[in-house]
Amino acid sequence: MNGKQHYYQALGIHCFQQRQLSSIEHKAADCRDEWEILESKVSQCTACHLHTSRTQTVFGVGDRQAQLMIIGEAPGFHEDQQGKPFVGRAGQLLTAMLKAIGLSRDQVYIANILKCRPPDNRDPQPVEVETCTPFLDEQIALIQPRLLLAVGRIASHYLLHTKASVESLRNQLHHYGEASTPLIVTYHPAYLLRNPRDKKKAFVDLQFVRKKMLSIG
Questions:
Q1: What is the layout of strands, in order, in the sheet containing 174-176?
Q2: Which residue range forms the structural domain that includes residue 202?
Q3: Range with lowest mean pLDDT among 9-18, 25-34, 56-65
């Protein structure tokens, strides 16, 4: 205690010292800063022509410490309007799919290959994927999920560097990146809305996800 503190104590004045943050608190604060910086970069991005037609960017939602990260293709009309992924009919189906294996949207993290809506919901072009996926890679690096679920052709092609069909990529465990994160492929909910006969196959994929989640604890 220094001289001033002795003087203040004698007068009955209590001095408050700034508490030192623990290493865990510092790490959490640094992580929040990284997320804020990344989200700001996405919202201001003009790297490809899609920024000229978007209403807003669609960054991602959910638990930033989630064990399961779901990666889709690109925002649609409703996502572009609300700034959140999977909020239209396909999003409602995805919510139901998660519920079928005992998960809520709040327990996972959901993002897309692209952060801006392609006009008329067309497929992302290669240059758009190349330009936008560094943002996704940063999200994956920050979350460090224990399991990735790629929904649809575009997501599985990028994450696995392949042109194989979704059907041929199902029912097996893949791995992504230098961390060799386990990855499972299933159909995109929008595809299932157009092809409801494949919902049974998707449910099999979800059981595979649930089994893997239980094994990684």
A1: 61-62, 109-112, 68-72, 147-151, 181-186, 174-176
A2: 21-216
A3: 9-18
Q: In this structure, are residues 101 and 210 in contact, taking their beta carbons and an 8 Å threshold?
A: yes
Query: Does some domain include residue 15?
Result: no
d(CA 149, CA 135): 17
Predicted pLDDT of residue 32: 83
Burial of 128 (0-12, 13-18, 19+ CB in 10 A): buried
Split into its structural domains, the chain has a count of 1
d(CA 53, CA 50): 6
CATH number, residue 187: 3.40.470.10
Name the residue among 187, 172, 165 with its Cα closest to residue 94.
187
Supply the DSSP symbol for 180.
T
